[in-house]
Amino acid sequence: MHLHIPRSLRFRFFAALGGLLICAIVALAAISALVIFPVLQAEERGAVKRELDRVERSFQLEQQQLLAQVRDWAHWDDTYQFVQGDYPRYKDVNFSQEMFEDMRYQLMAFFNKAGEVYFLAGINPTTGNYQTCTTPNDECAWMESWVNRMQAAIEEDKADQSAIYADQEPVMVSSTPILRTDRSGSPAGWLFKTRNLDDEWLSFMEEYTGLPINLSLIQGAASSSDAFSFSGNTVHAERYLPIYSPLTPASLGIGIELNRTSYLTNLTTFRYVLLWTAVLMVLVIAVVLLLLEKIVLKPLRLLTQFTQQLDIHETDVHKLTRRNDEIGLLSRAFQEHLTCQQQLNEELLTLSTHDALTGLPNRRLFDQRLETAFNEADATSGSLAVMMLDIDHFKLYNDHYGHPEGDVCLQRIADAMHSLAQTRDFFIARTGGEEFCALLPHTSPDKARDIGEQLSAAIDDLQIPHSTSPVKPFVTISAGIAMLQDAKSQSPSAVVSCADQALYLAKEAGRHQVVLFRQPLASTEISPHNTSP
Fold first, then answer.
1. Do the beta carbons of residue 256 and residue 202 sit within 8 Å?
2. Does the keyword Ribonucleoprotein apply (predicted)?
3. For residues 153 and 175, is the Cβ–Cβ distance under 8 A?
4. All domains of the chain, ordered by start, with CATH?
5. 498 pLDDT above the threshold of 90
6. Measured distance between the N- and C-terminal CA atoms of the chain, rounded to whole angstroms
7. Which of 376, 434, 435, 508 is catalytic?
8. Fewest CB within 10 A of the end CB: N or C in the chain?
């Protein structure tokens, strides 16, 4: 009789627990089908749309930048005189293949006030050679289709805008009337600039957005809705932009490809799955504890509380770990495992949010802090400055001194920046190889620029030799600053993009400078001296 009691208890225990687990699995399956999966699907589509929005904003920023460059050229007395034939040296002074390659221009077309071609310059997409001409014939015949569309735009009074043209390949086109610098008088003609949306431009956009991008030409008017295509673990999304086509409507499809796994394992997924799993597990644990209370010895019940609740009295913990039986061994192993796990969690948190070389916060933590600072600025209508810093000619430093010395240089620069950040109470992170970013909440433009100059001076004071630098014989930095203007209409990525533009201007102006981004670009302030773009 006594031999059958343990078997009977074991059977009853596992039968009860098995039935409970079956009920939990059925309930979880029902909840997943009715609640979690629809939420995941909606969240996934929303995340893909946000990525499409980001790519479209980057595309629009490129158009705005090209339009600003066109207006900078067209609203210039020298250009005004050139189109009227009063400045014959204009094209010799201002045009070169290097200029077209640096600015990523494909074609610049000047038209007189009658809409006739005055001067054409560009890089032949077939040969890669720089060419100038006055008519799109012979060796400049490749310009003819673009010139015809430009003249059509002039006739339709659509020559003061950014648009997309497409023949065999799409190009970005910006145009504006040619005026005097003070905008007085009537237009002397029109200026068009094109930027080819080729593989090189796609590579630039992919590096800028961090997303794989592809373009496709589509016949017909642009659709107002995005297209989604799901295949395995990837989703292909496409957004359509209108193309200027005088004869037949057409559109340009901007497509991205994302890994669906990342969306299925995002925070919202974890929150819903863990919520319902926790509820079910609480029920399971409650029933298990009830069964254990009736059929298992007191030491085992204490061990269960120790491993599940972690709030057992220290005296009971001491008793459990000092036991010389299997329960004592299990208690000591659990305690060691818990201590090790806590240490690993702390180390993992540090590794996931800080740069291993410099000890500064990394890009992940910077993005989190940026989002928080952006929301605070939105809620309090406060100011926010974003600064991007870059070590001048750091590749030359690595090539000359070697990567080990380059690592030492990065560490010294990071220490100097961190010391100043602690003194001035702002956040700084290493976001790339030689790139750093800073967040300056509640900071005015002048104060932000002053901090940028202090950072530059702190690096200068290190006097790290850099014999191959064309800027200084020691290591220097350049900085670009952007201010949050309106949190309702701007996004964190847009402010960072403006800071990146300011950094680009600092490099263009000779490096070792601090640039404060302002609209329009022509009014950008540069320290220690001013330079116009």
1. no
2. no
3. yes
4. 57-269 (3.30.450.220), 363-527 (3.30.70.270)
5. yes
6. 97
7. 434
8. N
